[in-house]
Amino acid sequence: MTTNALRLPAEWEAQSAVLLAWPHADTDWAERLDQVEQTYVALVGAITRFENAIVCVASAAVREHAETLLKTAQANLGRVRFIEIEYDDTWLRDSGPITLADRKQFQLTDFRFTGWGGKFEASRDDLLVQGLIQRGLFVPAAHRRVDWALEGGGIESDGAGTILTTWKCLHQRHPQLSRAEMDKKLIDSLEARRVLWLDHGYLEGDDTDAHIDTLARFAPDDAIVYQACDDASDPHHAELAAMAQELAALRTADGRPYRLFPLPWPQPIRDGERRLAASYANYLIVNGAVLIPAYGDAADAEAARVIGLAHPGREIVAVPCRPLIWQNGSLHCVTMQLPRGVVA
């Protein structure tokens, strides 16, 4: 157990801004750039209703183009800050800073980013946190480089010292380490008290090796929102049912079961023969609202209802995310919240 006052805040705590990177023709989005840009316009428009958006752009031309699209859509450009910086891809949940906080002190924790276990080129993404610091984005804060592969989408924090993660993902990144060794690494690097592991749960089409943010999310007052599957004929059914049993067996730090909120299961979405990873668990919490992925499915409305129950008092805003899942992620994956006070 750590004695440091730093901790990893829960996502529902107060934020300064949401960080994201604009897609462009030199990223993997090139083939369907127009479609994905419409999702980004809707996403930035939704974020800036509630707080600031910090948008990374690869060049002045990308900035000008993004600004024109946002202005046309009447987004609140007064809440948009552009930062010109190189990046390989736009999944900033995984390459952005994991920010630990202690009142007015911050630590920008900068884990090694390997392109999800070496699947994709990631050398520029691995330099992103350092580059943002050099560009003066943050207030004076400790920059801790951790030479150990971990992505922000692979962990959930309840803000009180508990980390939720999946064995499949971290075992893929670090096959030589035992669970006890990984417990220690996560506790030490995230200033946590304990780690809860899920052994089950996956989504076809997901190339992150079962990131927790596609499967199960902490919510206030000892709750967990999770992706369920009620279709017994679907190949996900048995695995997600086993995950639901694992979640039911978990206990809070003081020994109570978590309050569980199962999310509905959308109909399969395919790109040709390839099934896409459509998860309602991949939502983003901002100040006063929850932005939820919408897939044009009949289950969208029920997902909004369930997430609203788990996050009472927040407006629920749907963002069209079909274009995002073509590249195997969704709304939470392309964003990273920054705690209140850390942005200069």
UniProtKB/TrEMBL annotation:
SUPFAM superfamilies the UniProt entry points to: Pentein
Superkingdom: Bacteria
InterPro entries documented for this protein: Peptidyl-Arg-deiminase_porph (IPR007466)
Entry keyword Hydrolase: yes
One Pfam family, short name: PAD_porph
This protein's record includes keyword Cytoplasm: no
Keywords: Hydrolase
PANTHER family, per the entry: AGMATINE DEIMINASE-RELATED (PTHR31377)
Name of the molecule in the record: Agmatine deiminase family protein
Organism, as annotated: Tahibacter harae
Organism lineage string: Bacteria, Pseudomonadati, Pseudomonadota, Gammaproteobacteria, Lysobacterales
